Amino acid sequence: MSAARRSPEPLLSFSSAELRSAESTIVFDPKPLPADPDAPRKRWYHYVPVCVTVFLILVFHPSLLYVLVDFHLQTMHQPVIFMIHLLVTYTLTFMALSSLIVCVARDPGPANAPPSRLEGASGEGEEIGLTEALMPDHDFSSPARWCRKCWAPKGERTHHCSICGRCVLKMDHHCPWIGAKCIGHRTYPAFVHFLCSVSFLSLYVATLSIHALWYAFNNPFAVHEFTPVHELVLAFAGVAFTLIIGSFAAYHIYLSITNQTTIENITPFMLLRHLPPLPRSGHSLSDPPLEPELSFKQRRLVRTAHGRILVYDVGWRKNLSQVFGWTGKYGLLYRLWCGGASPGDGKNFPRNPRAEEMLAKLAKALVDADANQ
């Protein structure tokens, strides 16, 4: 009998004291990854839409002031009502412009920055433990966890924007109206805040103008001859913007309540990346399945399941807390002022406990449909 084999000794070994010393001194300072060379450079005309947005927010204020002064001060002699309308309209305007500035100026979510560099991190310095740096918790061999464009790992719900040439944490969509930037983890609450502020402002102006216009129709000799023209234009613009922007605001409130992004909501085949491992035999599908290899019947199965399987829906209260939650004494005031950023690191999200069973049923249905072809 030969002697028992000795287990090979490790090439490097560290004592616990050396590991603690290394963890206390190591600083994770990655350089930013280069942008996609195929992505177009941002030119001056990319900022034209955001200038148009600001112009549309401010263009009606001269007419609004004219109506407020002529109707409430000179005709109705209501200085208190005049001041209330003035305060409400300019507060909503200030809130809309504040959240717009956040969307334009803030990075939507650096996908490859260390946790301490993200807003809301608990660490005080730009340091990361040696164990965390050398042994990440995620399986980056999964196609959904590795970006082949940036050639770097990406977190959960992170997507690569081909227009910006980078990955964005919890990317919602690319918006040309805010300076050709993406809406992501660090700007989504500000974006929803902007939509709601503009919607409320438009609704308020429309209501105010319609009330003044109704008075002008009933008392044509009591108002100035040009005042109804301003009131009519303001009423039409207010109703139009309320219907258009308000529809987007309602849609994104629905997405927040159900914990979805725009990409996840309009792309049913993103469910494929969440499927459990498929059997190794008995089918010709990849693992996970790819959209081009699905048949018409399998595509219909995925589209039907997409409306019922909400992977990240953990209840409307927790969903809203993930998007608009706050910490600190003045967190609510900050949310009301400009929206801010979503809490958390933007890389890990709790999942719907019922989704796993539904995904397993979908995987089985896809395999059965493939076997019956």
TrEMBL record:
Q: Which reaction does it catalyse?
A: L-cysteinyl-[protein] + hexadecanoyl-CoA = S-hexadecanoyl-L-cysteinyl-[protein] + CoA
Residues forming the Palmitoyltransferase DHHC domain are 143-266
- Cellular component GO terms held in the UniProt record: membrane
Q: Where is this protein localized, as stated in its record?
A: Membrane
Which stretches are transmembrane? Answer: 47-69, 81-105, 191-217, 232-254
Task: List its EC numbers.
Answer: 2.3.1.225
Q: Where primarily located?
A: membrane
Q: What class of enzyme is it?
A: transferase
User: Does Transferase show up as a keyword for this record?
Assistant: yes
Q: How does it sit in the membrane?
A: Multi-pass membrane protein
InterPro entries registered for this protein in UniProt: Palmitoyltrfase_DHHC, PFA4/ZDH16/20/ERF2-like
Q: Which GO terms describe its molecular function?
A: protein-cysteine S-palmitoyltransferase activity
Q: Which UniProt keywords apply?
A: Acyltransferase, Lipoprotein, Membrane, Palmitate, Transferase, Transmembrane, Transmembrane helix
- Domain text: The DHHC domain is required for palmitoyltransferase activity.
Q: Which family does the record assign?
A: Belongs to the DHHC palmitoyltransferase family.
Q: What is this protein called?
A: Palmitoyltransferase
Native organism taxonomy: Eukaryota, Fungi, Dikarya, Basidiomycota, Agaricomycotina
